[in-house]
Amino acid sequence: xxxxxxxxxxxxxxxxxxxxxxxxxxxxxxxxxxxxxxxxxxxxxxxxxxxxxxxxxxxxxxxxxxxxxxxxxxxxxxxxxxxxxxxxxxxxxxxxxxxxxxxx
Length: 104
Fold this sequence. Notes:
Layout (H helix, E strand, L loop, with lengths): L12 H11 L4 H21 L3 E3 L3 E8 L2 E4 L6 E4 L2 E8 L1 H8 L4
């Protein structure tokens, strides 16, 4: 019997703003500004090549990927994938354990 995966619900930035606002004394505008700035700082740090480490949560960084050959799946022709930086996220063992322990 094939196992089926249960899909998760999607949380938007606005949902996040509402959840944080409910747990703090900030106004909706202040909460949105804080989250927007937080995300902007993460993006700018990654663009600069800096590593972001939030202990107990995750680490974000960029990894260098060398040039490589691949196959275009539609045309079956070989293509060259240029060298580039790619974002990488590694979740903490603590968070992974909590997710694994989640009940269906």
